[in-house]
Amino acid sequence: MLRNGEPVKMSKRSGDFVTLREVVDEVGQDAVRFMMLYRKNDAVLDFDLAKVMEQSRDNPVFYVQYGHARGHSIFRNARAEVFPELPEDAGERIAWLAESAVERLSDAVELDLLKRLAIFPRMLEAAAAAHEPHRIAFYLYDLASEFHALWTKGRDLPYLRFIINNDAELTKARLAMVQGVVSVLASGLAILGVHAPNEMR
């Protein structure tokens, strides 16, 4: 148990120790569960209380949950800017996006993200067969990282933005890709027993 990289002093003799309940109360159930599953079962778990409260890439649970929330933020922006008819209900939205011209997704970073999405079922099977849930947590972190990287590139390179106001067809194709990311992040987090928020402040 660490706090800011320094060991938290504990002693059984003096009764000075931190219980799991105290850790959950301090950082939340999602952070504890994800961080425990983010390590191989034969690896030592260094649990840094300060790190799991950061809102940064260094906090895996935040980074993955933020990826899910960012996807929903993109949907809200698309609804406001291009597609007011974009359904809020996930099932209806998936059906609406099924008619997207996904062949328009041709940039290397988009294709890499699509490839990452495509390996999700095989990764799940392998994780289950090997009894290694950390594979799911690693995969979700990698997926969120690629998604955040694409979003960041779009800030610098307008042609990579998810929402292109004068190209509804490309925007719809990119929204279908975002839906894939959101669906996989939500499914993976649910398997780990971690919430997938639609909004984070």
UniProtKB/TrEMBL annotation:
<feature type="domain" description="DALR anticodon binding">
    <location>
        <begin position="64"/>
        <end position="200"/>
    </location>
</feature>
<dbReference type="GO" id="GO:0005524">
    <property type="term" value="F:ATP binding"/>
</dbReference>
<dbReference type="InterPro" id="IPR008909">
    <property type="entry name" value="DALR_anticod-bd"/>
</dbReference>
<keyword id="KW-0547">Nucleotide-binding</keyword>
<dbReference type="InterPro" id="IPR009080">
    <property type="entry name" value="tRNAsynth_Ia_anticodon-bd"/>
</dbReference>
<dbReference type="Pfam" id="PF05746">
    <property type="entry name" value="DALR_1"/>
</dbReference>
<comment type="similarity">
    <text>Belongs to the class-I aminoacyl-tRNA synthetase family.</text>
</comment>
<dbReference type="GO" id="GO:0006420">
    <property type="term" value="P:arginyl-tRNA aminoacylation"/>
</dbReference>
<dbReference type="GO" id="GO:0004814">
    <property type="term" value="F:arginine-tRNA ligase activity"/>
</dbReference>
<protein>
    <recommendedName>
        <fullName>arginine--tRNA ligase</fullName>
        <ecNumber>6.1.1.19</ecNumber>
    </recommendedName>
</protein>
<keyword id="KW-0436">Ligase</keyword>
<keyword id="KW-0648">Protein biosynthesis</keyword>
<keyword id="KW-0030">Aminoacyl-tRNA synthetase</keyword>
<keyword id="KW-0067">ATP-binding</keyword>
<dbReference type="GO" id="GO:0005737">
    <property type="term" value="C:cytoplasm"/>
</dbReference>
<dbReference type="InterPro" id="IPR001278">
    <property type="entry name" value="Arg-tRNA-ligase"/>
</dbReference>
<keyword id="KW-0963">Cytoplasm</keyword>
<dbReference type="InterPro" id="IPR014729">
    <property type="entry name" value="Rossmann-like_a/b/a_fold"/>
</dbReference>
